[in-house]
Each structure stands twice: as C-alpha cells, then as structure tokens.
Amino acid sequence: MKENKKILLITKHFPPEIDGVGDHSYQLASRLKNHGFFVEILNSTLNIEDNFKHYHNPLNGFRDLNALTEIIQEAEPDIILFQYVPFSYNVKGLPFWLIAFFNQIKKQNIKILFFAHETFERRRAKFKHILLEYLQKAILFRLSGLSDTVFTTNKVYATHLKKFKNKLYLTRTPSNFQDIAYHSRNKTSKEKIDIRLTYFGNRDFKKTLHIFKELYAINNKTRLSIVGKITPNHFSDLKYPDNILIKEKIKITGPLAAHQILEELSQCDAYILPEYVGSKQDGGLNTKSGTTATGFMLGKVVISTKGDMTEDIFKDMSNCVLINANQPREAAKKILSALTYSKEKIEKNALKLYHEQLSWENTIKTIIKKC
User: Fold this and answer.
1) Element at 253 (helix H, strand E)
2) pLDDT value for 192
3) Which of 78, 192, 265, 359 reaches 20 to 30 Å from 147, CA-CA?
4) pTM of the full predicted structure?
C-alpha cells in the first residue's frame, strides 16, 4: 500500500446531522485516518467543525456536476470512497446524475470504492414500485460497473450485486459508536424481575409499545426507555386499559449525545428493535444497521424480527431473540422467558458475534486491502 494515500470520502450526510450512514462515514474516516490515510470529506452539511477538511456541495443533481468536478480537481485524491443510498442523492430515489459524475471521476484515473448501503426497491405489486425497482437497478449496476471495488452490508444486497462478484465484498455494518463494552446489569431473578427494555432508532414503534403493554401485564416492574426522536405525541392513538400507569413506566429521552446514548443503553436488560417484515417475509434483523450492531457490541439481549434479510449468524435464543411482532402476547412471553432463563448465555454470545462478524476491525481490514 502506498503510504499516505489520499481518500476523498463522499457522503450526503455527516455529523452533527443525525443519520446512520453519516455516522458510519465519520467512524470510517476516523479509522482510515488512524491507519495512515489522508482523509478529506465531501458532504452537503455546512459549518462542520472536526478534525477533517470538508468540501461542501448539495449533491442533488446534474446542476452540481461542474462544482463537483472543481472540488475533485482541487482535492486531487488517489481514492474516492462513495457512500451510496439512492434516496440521499435524489428525492425520488433515482440519482441518474451520479452516472455522469462517476464517468468524470474515471477520466481522472481515480480509484472508486463504492459502498452500497442500500440497493433498490424490493419488488411489490404496484406498477410504480416495479418501475422504481427497474430504474434503481439500472443506476446501481452502472455505478457498480464504473467502480473499482464494491462493498455492501448484507447477503441480500450481495445477491442483488452478484454480477459484480469479482470485485464485490461483504462488510457488515459495525456500531456507529466507538468499540466499547459495558458490564451487563445483574442477572434477572425469577422471583423479582425488573426488566428494562430500550428502543432506539427508526423501527416499528407501535408494535414495540404493544409488546411492552403485554410485558407489563405479565410483570408490572417492566420499564421501557425510548432513545431518540420519539415524542409523547406518538402515544396519542394508542389505547391502553391503564394508559397513564403504563406511560409512567416509559422514559422518553429525546435526542442524546453519543456518550449519553451509550450510558442509556448500558442500563437495559434488552434492546428491542422490531425490524419491518413484509408479507413476503422481506426484511427482518439484518447486518446493514449500525444501531443493531451497537446492541451486540454492548453485549445486550437484542430482540428483533426474522425475515429474508436475517442471516444464519443470528441464532434465536442463543445470541439474540427473534419474535413475531404481530403477536405481541406471544412475543412478550418469549422475551420474558429469554431474560429469565437465558440472559447470560445470550449476552455472552452477542458479544462474541460482534467481535467475530460485526466489528470495525473486520470492516477496516477489508477496506484497506482494496485501497
């Protein structure tokens, strides 16, 4: 590897904006810098104060191409690492203009590392979704073809990109926080169970609350901490028999700084993330989410759903708990059983899974090999 290679990391969002891929970009840039690369950032966010040089561009369409060309010429990178989510670069999820941008980069003989955090719309019945899938595939395949290396985050997306298998690498998404671990709370007692659940990120909030209601009905010591953007207004259409009493057991933190989030998560017995699962079993617990990886990094009992994106590295009742969120009573019973009888085993295996499959160390090794 040539020393002090210069990487220009292009991402629509970047901290302090709240965005998963933006957080991933910051962690990725920091670790590449620690490995001796000279890293600069091109993003749409203004007035960022950190340890990187930033170039600003809206990254919205063809009208931005001339300014982007000037930035590339000024930065003179050896490598461009592009963070791709189709809807980040076009409100309709169709960033055709990126094809022209990648062609310009190739003319300057710059290596492109393409990171597909998302691929295309999964097939649904309506014509507009079928058309969107077709067009997003065309864009994805063209950008992948113009790239020197393609990374993606899970096996379903890797299947979408299988025609590029000779330059495709699976790099599961690590935590968007530093690699640290907290000691687990005390073992849950069968006699006196004080369950703390934590809900974090953009998941199925209503189903989480219905599951919490059933848990509370079984054990009124259960508490729920909601970390993030959820506000009390989200409760307005939920009808509980003991609505006020249950709400008293729910803590809403609002947006928090990174260290506050980790402190909040460290206090829970379980980390509940019910991923969307469609009628064709599309979705479920997956390796594209830094939020999910954080639960495993902290050695928590991660509770989620199973779908076609749920890889066999996730072992139900061994390193996680997989529930049917459409059956809240059965889900509550399963969670209670896991926390009563299997908590320590699941926590231990969750940590093992993180270090073997989901850590930044694994991701950075793979990326550096292609720089």
Assistant:
1) strand 250-254
2) 41
3) 359
4) 0.90
CA atoms of 297 and 361, how far apart (whole Å): 12
Instruction: Give the span between the Cα atoms of 133 and 112, in whole angstroms.
Output: 24
Q: Which of 367, 335, 64, 79 is nearest to 216 (CA)?
A: 335
Alpha-helical (H) ranges within the chain are 20-34, 65-75, 97-107, 127-146, 155-160, 205-218, 243-248, 258-266, 290-297, 328-341, 343-353, 360-369
Residues 204 and 271: their CA atoms lie apart, in Å, by: 13
Can you tell me the distance from the alpha carbon of 321 to that of 303, in angstroms, rounded to the nearest whole number?
5
- C-alpha to C-alpha distances, 281 to 103, 211, 276, 277, nearest whole angstrom: 37, 20, 9, 5
pLDDT digits 0-9 by tens, 123-174: 666 888 899 999 999 999 999 999 999 999 999 999 999 999 999 999 999 9
Task: List strands edge to edge, sheet with 79-84.
Answer: 53-56, 38-43, 6-10, 79-84, 111-116, 149-152, 168-170
Phi-psi region of 47 (alpha: psi -120 to 50; beta: other; left: phi over 0): left
Query: Of 265, 210, 268, 261, which is closest to residue 234 (Cα–Cα)?
Result: 210
Q: Report phi then psi at 118, rounded to 5.
A: -140, 160
| Rounded distance between C-alpha atoms, residue 54 and residue 11, angstroms | 11
Name 251's bridge partners.
225
Q: What's the chain's length in residues?
A: 371
Three-state DSSP class for 81? Answer: strand
pLDDT at position 125: 67
Angle at 143 between CA 139 and CA 144, to 5 degrees: 115
